[in-house]
Specification:
Blueprint lengths: L2 E5 L5 H10 L3 E5 L7 H5 L3 E2 L3 H7 L2 E4 L4 H9 L13 E4 L5 H13 L3 E4 L2 E2 L2 H6 L2 E6 L2 H11 L3 E8 L3 H29 L4 H9 L6 H5 L1 H6 L8 H18 L4 H18 L7 H8 L5
Parallel strand pairs: 1-2, 1-4, 2-3, 4-5, 5-6, 8-9
Antiparallel strand pairs: 7-8
């Protein structure tokens, strides 16, 4: 049994923290909105009043937060994780943030004699609940191997990518593909449904075809029903695209197709759909096409 802290109990962090509890670990949690910790506490987790207290009480401290500024706040603030660290502890961040934001947190953690793993995940809230996520990790190899038994309680697929920020770049690369794939599916679905085909059948055919993927499978229901309750919002996808563009600028890589998709995400956000699931791109293409179901 490990002593584990978990900070960030949103759509992904909540089920992931509970999977560590189910595996028999002692888990302490903190979230900016305390009410979001109720489910984990009811399942047996302990509550801590600050990220610092989480770090003081545990050997492994996981973070799963929305963006880089939040990661900095929970780590580097007066009552943050770094203030509660001592030598030998491990901080594992599973968020999607920039390379620069990550490196700054790593520097502060290493100054305390602790270690930092970057471990963003691939997969949906459903995979988080089922503990079948993919985990992309980079950082000190020995620390990764030490943490691997915990990762295996959270995900079915484990990937060690290198000693620094490699996992951040890989995660951003994947999210570019996910966003662009959804734009392509949106256009294909609207073309078919405007020609008179049944949208539910169209989504089934796409998911089962040569271009089908876990993503097209997950998105069959929201697209065919027109219910875009957020599993991953437009605003979060915009944030990840912008982070990827910054990396692309650093390495001199053109992202022309991604740039077009980014403009459509911006259009969806401007209409007022920024908090809806990014598969609302289908509704955007319908609107652009003058089509109403």
């Amino acid at each position: 049994m490990a002593k584990v802290g978990w900070i960030g109990l949103g759509n992904m962090g909540n089920p992931m923290s509970q999977n560590l509890l189910k595996a028999g670990n002692e888990v302490t949690v903190w979230n900016r909105t305390k009410a979001k910790a109720d489910a984990a506490v009811s399942a047996g987790a302990k509550w801590a009043d600050t990220p610092k207290a989480v770090a003081e009480a545990n050997d492994f401290i996981f973070t799963m937060v929305s963006d880089g500024p939040t990661l900095h706040a929970v780590n580097l603030g007066a009552d943050g994780i770094v203030a509660g660290l001592s030598a030998g502890k491990v901080v594992i961040d599973m968020s999607t943030v920039s390379v620069e934001e990550s490196a700054k947190v790593n520097e502060a953690i290493e100054a305390k004699g602790a270690k930092f793993l970057r471990a963003p995940v691939t997969g949906s809230t459903m995979l988080a609940q089922n503990a079948t996520l993919g985990i992309l990790a980079s950082g000190d190899k020995a620390t990764y191997e030490k943490t691997l038994p915990l990762f295996e309680k959270l995900g079915a697929n484990q990937f060690y990518l290198g000693g620094a920020e490699e996992a951040r770049v890989m995660k951003l690369s994947l999210n570019l593909m996910i966003g662009v794939t959804m734009q392509m599916e949106a256009e294909a679905v609207v073309l078919a449904e405007k020609a008179g085909l049944d949208v539910t059948q169209v989504c089934e055919i796409i998911a089962g075809s040569a271009v089908g993927s876990p993503l097209t499978g997950y998105k069959k229901v929201p697209i065919s029903s027109g219910d875009y309750k957020p599993a991953f919002s437009v605003k979060l996808m915009e944030k990840d695209f912008d982070l990827a563009f910054a990396v692309a600028k650093q390495y001199g890589v053109p992202l022309a197709t991604a740039a077009a998709t980014r403009q459509n995400l911006q259009s969806a956000d401007a209409i007022g759909w920024g908090d809806q699931d990014f598969s609302v791109l289908t509704k955007l293409v319908e609107t652009q096409s003058g089509y109403t179901r």
